[in-house]
């Protein structure tokens, strides 16, 4: 798993993939005080699971189990790209997304993306920014398309 530094701070973060894969354009577009970056090995304490709970019932993982999953995901090369948007002042995650790269026999390389935003921050364009960042990575990974899934119950008229 690559180790990198969060550009805005001096604190070393153990990131799930290289920061360079994050779209500079999306980074520029974010409101002041928010950072978009790859998931870090200590993001359990920043509320990563709370963000994911808007998608589905989330099993209450202890920190050690969450960390084991983080490292298991990172041990599969060039496949999982989990990222987050963090409120720097609160040091809390507001939005999260993952790109999952699929290698197919008939269509080459495709990808799926999943996006979640904490309830209090929905409709503030954070979901859009996460989706744009995932599509950017998808292009860098050579995917011919990226598919976003959403259950009907979450679709608003
Ligand atoms: C769906 C979700 C990721 C969107 O993120 P967001 O930050 O709230 O949405 P944004 O402000 O970025 O909106 C982007 C666009 O999506 C639309 N949109 C947002 N949520 C929507 C929903 N639930 N149904 C339909 N359209 C939606 C917005 O109207 C906007 O459209 P526009 O560009 O035409 O104005 C977020 O609301 C969320 O996590 N919801 C709960 C979980 C979920 O449904 N995830 C989707 C996968 S199942």
TrEMBL record:
GO terms for biological process: UDP-N-acetylglucosamine biosynthetic process. Pathway: Nucleotide-sugar biosynthesis; UDP-N-acetyl-alpha-D-glucosamine biosynthesis; N-acetyl-alpha-D-glucosamine 1-phosphate from alpha-D-glucosamine 6-phosphate (route I): step 1/2. The keyword Transferase applies. It comes from the Eukaryota. Keywords: Acyltransferase, Transferase. The keyword Transferase applies. It catalyses: D-glucosamine 6-phosphate + acetyl-CoA = N-acetyl-D-glucosamine 6-phosphate + CoA + H(+). InterPro entries: Acyl_CoA_acyltransferase, GNPNAT1-like. Its EC number is 2.3.1.4. One of its GO terms (molecular function) is glucosamine 6-phosphate N-acetyltransferase activity. PANTHER family: GLUCOSAMINE 6-PHOSPHATE N-ACETYLTRANSFERASE. Belongs to the acetyltransferase family. GNA1 subfamily. This is Glucosamine 6-phosphate N-acetyltransferase. It comes from Coniophora puteana (strain RWD-64-598). The lineage of its organism: Eukaryota, Fungi, Dikarya, Basidiomycota, Agaricomycotina.
């Amino acid at each position: 798993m690559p180790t990198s530094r969060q550009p805005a701070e001096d604190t070393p973060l153990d990131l799930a993939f290289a920061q360079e894969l994050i779209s500079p354009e999306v980074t520029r577009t974010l409101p002041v005080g928010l950072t978009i970056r790859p998931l870090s090995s200590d993001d359990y304490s920043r509320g990563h699971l709370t963000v994911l709970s808007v998608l589905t019932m989330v099993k209450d993982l202890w920190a050690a189990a969450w960390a084991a999953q983080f490292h298991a995901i990172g041990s599969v090369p060039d496949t999982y790209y989990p990222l987050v948007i963090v409120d720097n002042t609160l040091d809390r995650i507001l939005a999260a997304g993952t790109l999952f790269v699929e290698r197919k026999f008939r269509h080459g390389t495709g990808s799926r993306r999943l996006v979640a935003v904490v309830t209090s921050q929905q409709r503030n364009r954070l979901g859009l920014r996460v989706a744009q960042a995932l599509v950017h990575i998808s292009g860098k990974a050579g995917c011919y398309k990226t598919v976003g899934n959403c259950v009907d119950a979450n679709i608003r008229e």
